[in-house]
Automatic annotation (TrEMBL):
It comes from the Bacteria. InterPro entries: AA_synth_put, BB2672. This is Amino acid synthesis. SUPFAM superfamilies: BB2672-like. It comes from Jannaschia seohaensis.
Length: 193
């Protein structure tokens, strides 16, 4: 199993105080964390890539802890998502290795969140941007939490790297009024409603 080689991490927090209309009672916090790592499979085809997910698990937990702390702690988090940008010497399947380590890390850190962690991935060059989807952590059908956070880094991913990402929010979109299931009405039985 290849070792994880980390080049750098980036942590970003956005405090939204106004979106037009009346100011919210408290600002909406949105954040993301990216780890730029060496892609051990770049450049050649490898049949068995799944063992690398074990190497990614501790990174996922560390990233989830750091991001939650930057947004007020695990109890403040309501929305989440994950993603990966694979450098051009890799393949999109390498980004899929982040699904379990990134998702389960956030669920663990956030105390057993029930909803599937939405995800996206792509192959891209230096400075590639990625829109990472967001849903409510306990019920995927909470329409007010449907969102996306754009992430990227000017010097990543290099051809032989991957940039793995987690995103979190502390609430719904400001002034959400598109209807549907409200966060206050979540039953929490199946991760959907």
């Amino acid at each position: 199993m290849p070792d994880l080689i980390l080049r750098k991490t980036i942590l970003s927090r956005e405090d939204i105080f106004h979106e037009g209309g009346p100011p919210p009672e408290r600002p909406l916090l949105r954040g993301w964390i990216m780890a730029v790592i060496e892609n051990p499979f770049a450049g050649t085809y490898h049949e068995d890539i799944q063992p690398f997910m074990e190497e990614l698990k501790p990174l996922g937990v560390d990233m989830a802890n750091r991001l939650a702390a930057a947004l007020g702690g695990p109890g403040a988090i309501e929305g989440y998502g994950k993603g990966a940008i694979v450098g051009e010497a890799g393949e999109i399947e390498h980004g899929a290795l982040w699904h379990a380590p990134g998702g389960y890390a956030m669920r663990e850190v956030l105390g057993g969140a029930k909803a599937i962690v939405p995800s996206t991935k792509k192959v891209g060059g230096l400075g590639a941007r990625l829109d990472v989807p967001v849903t409510h952590k306990d019920a995927s059908y909470v329409r007010g939490h449907f969102d996306a956070i754009e992430v990227g880094c000017a010097d990543a991913p290099r051809a032989g790297e991957m940039a793995v990402v987690l995103v979190m929010t502390t609430g719904a979109r400001i002034h959400d009024r598109a209807g549907g299931l409200a966060a206050a009405d979540i039953e929490g039985k199946d991760g959907l409603r």
